[in-house]
Amino acid sequence: MASRVAHSTFLFLGPQKRSAEGKRICPQNFTFPGTCLLKWESRPNKRGGHKNCLVSSRKSKIVKAVAVSVPSSLADNTEDRKQLSENYGFRQIGEPLPDNVTLKDIVDTLPRKVFEIDDVKAWKSVFISVTSYALGIFMIAKAPWYLLPLAWAWTGTAITGFFVIGHDCAHKSFSRNKLVEDIVGTLAFLPLIYPYEPWRFKHDRHHAKTNMLSEDTAWHPVWLAEFDSSPILRKAIIYGYGPFRPWMSIAHWLMWHFDLKKFRPNEVNRVKISLTCVFAFMAIGWPLIILKTGIMGWIKFWLMPWLGYHFWMSTFTMVHHTAPHIPFKSSDEWNAAQAQLNGTVHCDYPRWIEILCHDINVHVPHHISSRIPSYNLRAAHKSLQENWGKYMNEATWNWRLMKTILTICHVYDKEKNYIAFDELAPRDSQPITFLKKVMPDYA
Description:
mainly alpha, 3-stranded mixed beta sheet, two-stranded antiparallel sheet, 11 strands, disordered N terminus
């Protein structure tokens, strides 16, 4: 990725300073005319020190840039947000939401119709998921070996639609009949061997505590103490938050949904029912698949699409709330409106993915109010753009966006939001170095 710097522009590495009049000035008393920008290719060293580097250019010059974590204050003016957007792979990084804006203020601007449940549209989404999944199974059965990856990609994406249907049921936005929602949600999750009620309880807390340190039950940064606790764990974390991160939802699934000790006493009975359903599906469904198709058939028809689903589950979730400029905050500093509007990312994917996944990536309105059905998310997003658009983070899924998340957004830091693994432990961070070398930088 390259950014164009024209005329008398000076680049330096180090924190930006301002004069009493609010103008940016260069460090070490340099007062040349021009614009001071961060030089992204260098980084602060482990101890936080900086090397100052001055480069003057009278002509247009291409400067290769690599995105790094920065203090959120650098996103406080239009010029810096535009530069960060380009470096991170975003279309727009939103302005900071004023402290006096509440979540209710934002919800009140949404049209009432976006909260309305439409049974026809809800069951249409079920039809789309069932037929697209059936088509995927047919393709897997008929495709030659060299086309199987395409068939698995389609089927894994189709079965992600099952998850979104269960997701709507958990948020009580699928049907007016709550028993129907519980039944449909449980059945939709079964092919994914996801226990519906445990996921629902944990996911409700994610919405209540989005981007809150410790309390958020979805993605959150690595703690430095955890990273430094043992060499073996450090290696596992580096691989998990680096090259294996698009499948880390598998670890989240195992850790959060099967341990009864993680649930409140009033939740345990419903959790047990969901776990019984999942184990019954495994005990009956898996042997039937193996009986009919053999162990390779189980891998071919179930495991590979399931891994495809987890790719999307991991990717969608981390893109929704992870970026160098999006902070995680402690409970005493956390602001609900800022976390849900400023801390959530709208990301456009290829249209066939959006259709099969029922617009789950139109995600900002879903965090403003989880009661909005998936088929109304686009109308709600349009309303938010009209009323709150300048505060929203927006992107189109691209290599640079993924590269930023996988190589930058690692260990929690209060001032910079994130510190990359290779800043803290360069010798152990070969997987991150590898990703930086091989991942394209297209936006």
